[in-house]
Amino acid sequence: MSLKLHNSLTGQKEHFEPQNPDNVTLYVCGPTVYNYIHIGNGRSAANYDLLFRVLNALYPKVTYARNFTDVDDKINAAAKDEGVDISVFAEKYMQAYDEDMAKLGNLEPTIVPRATEHIGDIITTIEALIERGHAYAADGHVLFAVDSFDDYGKLSKRNTEDMIAGARVEVASYKKNPMDFVLWKPSSDDLPGWDSPWGRGRPGWHIECTAMIQKHLGETIDIHGGGTDLLFPHHENELAQGTCCSDHSGGYAKYWVHNAMLDIEGEKMSKSLGNFIVLRDILNEQPPELIRLALLTAHYRSNMNWSEQLLHQSRSLLDRLYTIKRDGDALITTDIDIRDTEFFAMLLDDLNTPKAFANLHELTTRFFKAESDDERAALKSEIHAIADFIGVMQMDAQAWFQGTSDDSALSADAIEALLEERVAAKEAKDFARADEIRDQLAAEGIQIKDTREGTLWSRDS
RNA sequence: GGCGCGAUGGCAGAGUGGUCAUGCAGCGGACUGCAACUCCGUGUACGCCGGUUCGAUUCCGACUCGCGCCUCCA
């Protein structure tokens, strides 16, 4: 039983072999905290949470670090716009991020390091790079010398000459090579700054990840993850720094994993198109499990399209799962090891969630067709193991179907009263009245289902 | 322009050198007082052109189209 992962470094699916199976290390680039995160960030987070869960099922210990970049020019600019203190501003969005993650059902990473708490480590890393001839100070800045690293461009598969030729940005005078990137830059008095050998300043964009990795996870990590948009320049630069800042034979990261982007109804999400979905908004509008499931149904390396149809399909599966949870109440289930399921075996193939969910669908259909309670119980046990593993079907079935009523909706008591009246009407063979009640409920968004044990109802949403 | 990725049935989306993906929607049926739920049945799918092969949606090459990155971005 082993995991296969697509490694961006080689462009191929490879067998995952950790350096130390007793402590697997995973680092994922977290948010720069200057706003609430959007649904695409949520997708990325859910995908890496799934990877974390898979690794946890395979290895006794997994150290998963996901950072907060809480010093950045975008934060400075946004805080200034709002007239809020920068650290207060960043703190607000870090807290919001934690809330969003919890609501989405993501497990907490082992470590959540913050850039501002690692300024000393960042300076140490920069000093090491200078000492080793890979970085130089100029004009209060410190820059990484791209020419000092032969493999620069290896990860994103591009060469520096082409990039310089196609560059559209002006090259700062203090750069020796136009591709050199900033490790440290000077801060004016109104900006966050820390004392350093190069004067008061703040770190550049990429260095914080490298410093935090070296500090918490070691010189060579097993898996480094992030969105494909980070491949260049962020990860390329990290790879350069991380490789050059110390002597390590294993390289900076053994496997680079990149998730694809998300579109909304076929269009790129953007504020100007008015199709921007803030994760916390949609988590308030829809059941969080629905959002989580929908985000996981696409393969992480494929572009995914967020649409009404996707939500409809995901809801359909969740309804089936909760129907099993509700109707299979009397069945005696047993604990099943997720590693013994076909579902898990499919995830081992580079997190093939579409294939895994096809398997889940088959299990639900087999459950409904099963002819014996033993068979149903076995299937329900397997379905529960899967649902628990991916973090859905965690609600009470009644709560899932009946939802929480807002003020304008019909109360549960009122619904029950109408249903009682309907039962009476049916007994009196007054089907016209019975149908009238059903139509009335339907108009209020209540669907009903007659069973031998009585009438069940659920809310649309 | 450079680098990379992709093109599968109405839609979404796996996969395979020669029998089924799967889901949603549609249609027909069973169940039901009628419904809903559930079940059963149902659809000449693999961008275009060459090549390899006994045989290609699957391998190779060209072409067309789409997407991502190259600047902040998951």
UniProtKB/TrEMBL annotation:
Q: EC number(s) for this protein?
A: 6.1.1.16
Location in the cell reads:
Cytoplasm
Q: Does the keyword Metal-binding apply?
A: yes
Q: Which InterPro entries match?
A: Cys-tRNA-ligase (IPR015803), Cys-tRNA-synt_Ia_DALR (IPR015273), Cys-tRNA/MSH_ligase (IPR024909), CysS_C (IPR056411), Rossmann-like_a/b/a_fold (IPR014729), tRNA-synt_1_cat_dom (IPR032678), tRNAsynth_Ia_anticodon-bd (IPR009080)
Q: Where is this motif: 'HIGH' region?
A: 31-41
- Pfam entry (one): CysS_C
Task: Please name the PANTHER family in this protein's record.
Answer: CYSTEINE--TRNA LIGASE, CYTOPLASMIC (PTHR10890:SF3), CYSTEINYL-TRNA SYNTHETASE (PTHR10890)
Full protein name: Cysteine--tRNA ligase
Give the species.
Answer: Reinekea blandensis MED297
